[in-house]
Amino acid sequence: MILGQISYLDCIAFLVFLAPQLLIQIGIIPLLTWLLPQLPFLTFKVLVIPIQFIHERFLVPLEQRAPWVRKATPFQDLVIRFVRYAFANMPAFLGRVFFSKQVSLPFLRFRMLRHGVVTSPIRWTDITRPNFKGVWIVHNQQEQPDLIVYYCHGGGFSMGSSYFYMEFLLAWVALLKAAGYRNPALFALEYTLVPDATYPTQLHETLAGYEYVLSLAQSSTRIVVGGDSAGATLMLSFLLYLSEHTELRHQKPGLAIMISPWVSIVSPENRNTASDYLNSSSLEQYGRQYIGSKVSPDDAMVSPGNCKDIQKWTEASPEKGWYFLYGSEEVLGPETRNLIALLEKTGKEVDTWEEKGGIHAWPVASLYLGETKEARLSGLKSVVGAIKERIH
User: Fold this and answer.
1) Which residues form the Alpha/beta hydrolase fold-3 domain (predicted)?
2) Which has the closest alpha carbon to 364: 265, 230, 234?
3) Structural contact between residues 6 and 15, judged by C-beta atoms closer than 8 angstroms
4) How far is Cα 81 from Cα 248, in angstroms, rounded to an integer?
5) d(CA 104, CA 303)
6) Whether 238 contacts 316, CB under 8 Å
7) What does the alpha-carbon distance between residue 263 and residue 266 come to, in Å, rounded to a whole number?
8) What is the pLDDT of residues 311-347, one digit of tens each?
9) Residue 345 contacts residue 339 (beta carbons within 8 Å)
């Protein structure tokens, strides 16, 4: 199921679904306690952001514009400017509602109906177990999958849900089917968010989710692990952990897909750029909250970029290697390049797609903001192509 670009009508519908959930999940008193002091600043920004947009978009010479602005459509540019402000200034408890199941699923159904789709041709099922939960998506529920993607969503460990990614995940499975896989499937982990739990809870849930996927797969080599941002961090930590696991170290996945990975949780290399919507200060705050008090930020298991041991990465690498996708203008770009350079020394296959002028997790965001179908699917098609090339 592949829907069209997000429209202004979709944006209005999203706000309609969001408003009651803010009251339900946060409560009117806490919401007003945060909102009222912020109203002057919010009002100011609502006025200033469009002015800045017009100035940089139409008055500044092309060569002086930020790399992202040069390549983005006006709609994409404006949306990312508001996202940039929200990421830097809004608390995680608000973002958590934005990306929640209660907002995301009604919004998906609205978009489906707007495109004339009453029921998704690919079905999903909520999976709940004592030590993990997630969403199971499979083309044909009556047959064993011939390929399984095991995915962890992003969101700074403090927000996000698989349901917010549902349209992206459904499109991924649809493209895998079109690429020739008989019955592709995907399991998206719903790991516990901060502050409900901190490390290592999420890592243990990731391991439990992998054991579940193993029970459904033809073999571990038919499993692709992946994630974006904080979800990619979890997968990197998981692969390091798996390489030391007594029982599972010989059941490594076939391939790893890393979309804009948050390689090092706390690093001076994570610096703001003129293009990206991430904010390094907010990132560090979210990261330290995830790390908690049980381990050091320098611990390689919680912050995989701190592992510089080539042998460990050799043992942690999937059978068919790695595929990295990230933007050249990302806050997280320098640490991603450092990890890629290290992995290349292992002798494992490492392919990369660095999008010039690109920003954080654009292969995910472009599915919603891309102007044409080709632009919306370019990132996912690249991922599917990498999978098809290595797992036949």
Assistant:
1) 149-362
2) 230
3) no
4) 44
5) 29
6) no
7) 9
8) 999 999 999 999 999 999 999 999 999 999 999 999 9
9) no
For the whole prediction, is pTM greater than 0.90?
A: yes
Q: Which amino acid is at 225?
A: V
Cα torsion for 316, 190, 186, 248, to the nearest 10°? 30
- Residue 294: is its pLDDT beyond 90? no
Cα dihedral 4, 188, 157, 251 sign: negative
Q: How far apart are CA 71 and CA 298, in angstroms?
A: 37
Question: Rounded to the nearest 5°, which phi and psi values hold at 9?
Answer: -65, -40
Residue 271 is classified by DSSP as -
The answer for residues whose C-beta is within 8 angstroms of residue 243's C-beta and 6 or more apart is 249, 252, 312, 315, 316
Residue 87 tokens read as 């990421």
- Over the chain, what is the mean pLDDT? 95
Instruction: Decide: 53 and 85 in contact? Cβ < 8 Å.
Output: no
Q: Are 68 and 80 in contact (CB under 8 A)?
A: yes
Question: Which whole-number Å values give the CA distances from 151 to 188, 209, 224, 255, 353, in the listed order?
Answer: 5, 10, 8, 12, 19
pLDDT one-digit tens code per residue, 341-373: 999 999 999 999 999 999 999 999 999 999 889
Q: What stretches of the chain show up as alpha helix (H) in DSSP?
A: 8-25, 28-54, 67-71, 74-89, 92-98, 101-114, 166-178, 201-216, 230-242, 280-291, 310-316, 333-344, 362-369, 373-390
Domains and CATH numbers, the chain: 8-97 (no CATH), 121-390 (3.40.50.1820)
pLDDT surpassing 80 at residue 1: no
DSSP string spanning 321-381?
-EEEEEETT-TTHHHHHHHHHHHHTTTS-EEEEEETT--TTHHHHHHHH-SSHHHHHHHHH
Using alpha carbons, select from 61, 57, 63, 58 the residue that is nearest to residue 78.
57
What are the CB-based long-range contacts (under 8 Å, 24+) for 374-379? 376/2, 376/5, 377/2, 377/171, 377/175, 379/259, 379/325, 379/353
Phi/psi at 179 (5° precision) = -80, -5
CA distance 50 to 30: 29
Phi, psi of 290 (to 5 degrees): -65, -45
The pLDDT, as a whole number, for residue 38 is: 87
Amino acid identity for residue 331 in this structure:
V
